[in-house]
Write a structure and sequence with these properties.
Elements (H helix, E strand, L loop, with lengths): L3 H17 L5 H7 L5 H13 L3 E3 L7 E3 L4 H5 L7 H5 L19 E2 L5 E10 L13 E6 L9 E6 L14 E5 L9 E6 L3 E10 L2 E5 L8 E4 L3 E11 L3
Keywords: Autocatalytic cleavage, DNA damage, DNA repair, DNA replication, DNA-binding, Hydrolase, Repressor, SOS response, Transcription, Transcription regulation
Protein name: LexA repressor
Pfam families: LexA_DNA_bind, Peptidase_S24
């Protein structure tokens, strides 16, 4: 039996992972549950882990995997992925519906359960997206990961500035092309038409805040005219 706060936290983690593919930060959990300190989140996370609902992955910051759900959440149709899902007896549900439009530059894979997206290169300081002229290779991406009907592309991450958002050096991020963002979105931002960076976006009056998810990096505060949103994170692919 879970407490109300434990259920609220598990549901928040579930919804964030379903929407963004990565778990929320401890600060986001604290804010969502209206707690005064992160120590309360640590206690809730420990309780959920001890009861077998989640698993923290070793040697990775803020890496959380949902192992199972209470029966009420299970009926809502969310199924955790990976070997833990098979071990716990979950059966994935397939919802029939319209398939997203094929993105520009994508190639269908037969049978069509996935699309191949072009990997446009590495997102690193000093390399604007527009300067990457050649596709380095293609990568198969589940169609369900391609949100909406916009164009999509993939980038290889270099660096650890978003490690507490579950994004590690060497990961492949799937980006939907768009020029706008909501507060809290993880975006590809082009700074002064020169530098592309993957950061969490926030707007404060006429300024744009580009927040890292690593305390070793400071938040960058820039006038809005110096920042262009190039796309929003919609998925992440990791190889082991």
């Amino acid at each position: 039996m879970l407490t109300r706060k434990q259920l609220e936290l598990l549901d928040f983690i579930r919804n964030r992972m379903a929407a963004e593919g990565v778990p929320p930060s401890f600060d986001e959990m604290k804010e969502a549950l209206d707690l005064k300190s992160k120590s309360g989140i640590h206690r809730l996370i420990t309780a959920l882990e001890e009861r077998g609902f989640i698993r923290r992955l070793a040697h990775r910051a803020r890496a959380i995997e949902i192992v199972k759900l209470p029966e009420a959440m299970e009926r809502a149709g969310f199924v955790p992925g990976g070997a833990a899902a098979a071990a716990s007896g979950f059966t994935p549900r397939v919802i029939e519906g319209d398939r997203p439009a094929q993105p520009r530059g994508a190639r269908p894979v037969e049978p069509v359960h996935a699309l191949e997206l072009p990997v446009m290169g590495r997102i690193a300081a000093g390399v604007p997206i527009e300067a990457i002229q050649e596709v380095s290779h293609h990568i198969a991406v589940p169609g369900a990961m391609l949100s909406g009907r916009g164009q999509h592309y993939a980038l290889e991450v270099r660096g650890d500035s978003m490690i507490e958002a579950g994004i590690n050096d060497g990961d492949i991020v799937v980006i939907r092309e768009q020029t706008t963002a909501e507060n809290g979105d993880i975006v590809v931002a082009l700074v002064e038409d020169q530098e592309a960076t993957l950061k969490r976006f926030r707007r404060r009056d006429s300024m744009i805040l580009l927040e890292a998810a690593n305390p070793a990096y400071e938040t960058r505060v820039l006038p809005s005219h110096k920042v262009k949103v190039q796309g929003r994170l919609v998925g992440l692919i990791r190889s082991y």
